[in-house]
Design goal:
83 residues, mainly alpha, 2 domains, 54% helix
Length: 83
């Protein structure tokens, strides 16, 4: 085993609702992964989720109410045409 690829981990305990634990185990099993690997990956995805520049600009625009268009939602065809 190569030592330069080792990742330090710390043993941690959590209390989870039983039904959640069952669901997590089922999902991990579907992906042929350990429960630990599945939960760690899910948590990493959650904490590393960052919007890109385009999304950040759209969020800022929506918050500031600048240059927002009104879409015609009277019927599906006009709504799609307005996009």
């Amino acid at each position: 085993m190569r030592t330069d690829t080792l990742i330090n981990r710390k043993l941690t305990a959590f209390r989870l609702k039983e039904d959640l634990l069952v669901r997590l185990k089922e999902e991990a099993n579907k992906e042929n992964r350990s429960l630990n690997n599945f939960v760690e990956s899910a948590l990493m995805n959650l904490v590393n989720r960052k919007p890109n520049k385009t999304t950040l600009a759209a969020i800022k625009e929506a918050q500031e109410n600048d240059n927002l268009e009104t879409l015609n939602t009277e019927n599906l065809e006009s709504f799609i045409a307005s996009l």
